Amino acid sequence: VGESNWGINSIDLLYNTADSLFRGSTKGGKKVARSVEGSLGMFTTPLGKSYLCPSPPVINLMESKTGKQTVVLRLTNIQIQAFQIEKGKFAPMVRCSSVGFGSGVQAPIRF
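Below the sequence we write its predicted structure tokens.
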């Protein structure tokens, strides 16, 4: 990510398809899904800033054993910061460069 930026290297999602949330699952059990290496560059943010995005792009997660896409992670209205959080408040924000619409379609914002 660099010395003057922070970012997210990976996302791991742990879930259990034996849970009642997954009604009808034929292969119940604990699973791990992971982001693809290098796919999270959209979160790169200068140190001392937070990242804010109303509708970031969807993140595809792959099943750790098979490598097949098993989860689509859709985040909304996120604000994150890795370091230098003071008194429980976010630092000034860097806003993402696109805004999603209800259909999941994204449009760039021109400044």
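The longest strand covers residues 30-35.
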